[in-house]
Amino acid sequence: MPAEPHPAEPRPAATAAQALEAMDFFIATAHLGQQEMAQRLGVNVTDLLSFACVLKAGEDLLTAGDLAEQAHVTTGAVTGILNRLERGGYVTRVPDPTDRRRVRVAARPEAVAKVVALYQPYYDRLGAVFAEYSADEIAVLHDWFSRTTDLALAYIEELRAKDSGGTPARAS
Questions:
Q1: At what angle do helices 45-57 and 109-130 cross, to 10 degrees?
Q2: Would you state the pLDDT for residue 38?
Q3: Distance between first and last Cα of the chain
Q4: What is the pTM of this model?
Q5: Burial of 50: CB neighbours in 10 Å, binned 0-12, 13-18, 19+
Q6: CA–CA gap between residue 157 and residue 140 (Å, rounded)
């Protein structure tokens, strides 16, 4: 059960430069955390991200192509990812009910339990931090995370297109 929201405490003033510095440090720390989580689960960070995409899809099972798109990897790379996740007991491939030529990817329940057991204490702590913010502040945070995620993905595509001599598939 989520914590009851607390009245928002006044926030200390900060400049955009200070916020950017805090964001950079958060991203670096979060990356380190993802490496730690992946190591504890016996996978690499890309495989962990891919498994997270499978979890997010829930009952709407992904195809390999869907997974490649959501994890921002090539379709060739997703084959190796799926092979490793399947060998590690994280996913299973199931026949697509509408197209026998395709398979879909399902999370194994015991793998879901293992990931939840590792992440839940962290998410509980994050929930406690969010509980210290007002609904309006949470809306701003959600907007900021969503918009900057889109910006980051667009910039990654731009960099990849530049490396390949092409143009980005989408730009923001």
A1: 90
A2: 97
A3: 37
A4: 0.83
A5: buried
A6: 26
